[in-house]
Automatic annotation (TrEMBL):
UniProt keyword Nucleus, yes or no: yes
Keyword Nucleus assigned: yes
Full protein name: Nuclear envelope protein
Keywords per UniProt: Membrane, mRNA transport, Nuclear pore complex, Nucleus, Protein transport, Translocation, Transmembrane, Transmembrane helix, Transport
Organism of this sequence: Dissoconium aciculare CBS 342.82
Amino acid sequence: MAASNGVLFAPRASQSAPAAAKPQERTRLYKDFLTPALHRRFTSSAGIVLAACWLASILIGTNSHIFWSWFPIGAAGVRAILLLIPCMAVFIVRVANMHVGERTANGPALAALAAITQSKSLGSTLHTVGWYMWSGWFFGEVYMWSSKPEDSLGMIDLGRTYERARLNENPIFLRCLFVLLGLIQATRHLAVDYDQIAIPTWIDDAASQKSEQASSGSNASASLLSKLPPSLQLLAGRSTGIAHRALKLTVVGILFVTLPVYFLVLRRTAWSWTYMVGRAFYSQLPPSAPPTGLLNFGRLAWQAFFGAFLLALLWEFSNATFAVYVAQPPLKKGQPLTNEIKDDPNGSLITGLKSKREVPRTFAFWELYIICTQFEVRRKTIFIEVDRAGGSTWRQICDQCLAEISKIGQRINSVDDYGRRIVSAPKTQELADDANAASIGLPKIANHGIQDRPDMFLKPKKDLAQAVGTFAKSIGQSPTSHNPVASIQRSADQILPKEQRQRIVQDQFAQANSYAVKFLQMPVGEAFRQTFAYRASAVTFGTPHSNRVTVIYAVRALTKLAVCSLTEAQYGGVSKDIPVIIRTLTAAIRSMERFTRTLKPDWTDVLFSERDREVADIRQVLEVIKAGLEEIVLAFGEYAGELGLSKMEVREAREASTRKAITSGGVAGAAETKRLPSNSGERVEMVQRRRG
């Protein structure tokens, strides 16, 4: 019966509830494409470094057999894997502290001070120093483990048959050497800012690098390098610099750091610790013994030099390999990273442009520039996609590009002529302070109610504690009490008048100032100079890292999109944004030129001259913005009236886009100011010539 009533059976499809609506797919974040790409580059660079470690393992090998001395499946392969571990420590440091923009600060000394005083920077500094010192120690263990018995690098020196065993000081010296080399390399890493990923910003970078590589060697070597992948070509071009820096680190580390520091500071401590460990494994050692001295000094000197040079070479090669592979364009199989998906690739790109993190945002602008200049089909989709949450694709991309450009003027307007940040309290806060000023003063008598307090005019009774306090405060307040400060002041007035004392103080201050200027003029004082270039770049491109690369790619991408919209924007939604683009570019040029012209040099910049106002980074960005503004004015100048631009704005834009010859910044301008075409036909011809 229950079955007949249908209670135990599931309802039919016609009686079931309506199916839920299909959830809308979430736009994939840009980091979902960038992170796997960086992982692939990390793996590729690790493979190249492993090959270098395999070559190093052959050099430090002890096998006399020719085949087994290099065969990877054997002792050579094991040593190569062990040597890769110190190199991975370098990769860990690079990944943890990776950034794109140049480090901006008012000077090297202030940058070093921030690295050890600010909590975030201090953690990064300790992280770098710790990994480098550990890397040096681990390399030393592998290096001494790979040595021959006759190299005298064992912990215990058994000596001859009739001699008593003793602790060997040679490995102690080598361990201290490799650890101190790690400290020196970490200092150089932080000072030179190895953590920066140098992204190219000029189209002709690849051509200039190839010509540099070809000129660095013979024709045969150049033809051989041309057959290698581009990344290996870059590494080959940097090989001379890698070897030079490694040799310099070796010489400085041994002669000027390790020898004095070891014998003056570390020897006793390192000996006592090692002796304690040695007695735990070799009980025949005496309870205590002083350092025995270095054995076979000539052989030890060669071991120290060769090991230190090999370690420095691996460090420099690891840093160079990581920098070369990570700084590759955001492409996968010749296509933009976001082309990997068919569903809303532009939406993923927009999430990268809006990212708060520097690395994904910079790579997103780089990919946008590549799309705008090399992938026409993908570029056209930017103008077609108008139905998107938050605005059309063009609108959101344009807003992000203009925001990057506008930040330049905002940062410049927030400082005065001395580069100091202007702090202005809001009026609302001032009014609130005035309103609460009454609560700060003493309470008024009228607020207490006189009728309620009949004893107000009577002298209050004092207890014992108040009496003691009154007596203590009364000491020294009588007219006849002795005031030592006043006596010293009267004695000083009797010896020297006040005017003469002020003159002496001024002379001493002038003398101290002259000493400071002489110190700043010396090579040692260079780190303490707050040069004009440091201060101007820090204000223009922000701190702690510059966004110069992001601005360059934003300007170039926006310029290309604006010009191509004349023929590719089917819905005509770009023209209304052209006036805003022209005004923003013009304002950025005006702000940068005014700032470099009016910024006053710091007193520590003792070698300043008016030629120093031509800052290379600022001039480079100015050249890019002027080129973009000129191209947009050429394309839309004849439609200025219809677009809402006045004649004055067009004239100001043309004046701002005028470019002159420069001697720095990486771009060669014209020898004279460029003449803007006067008629529309000439403008169209120039625009077509630029596209071609």
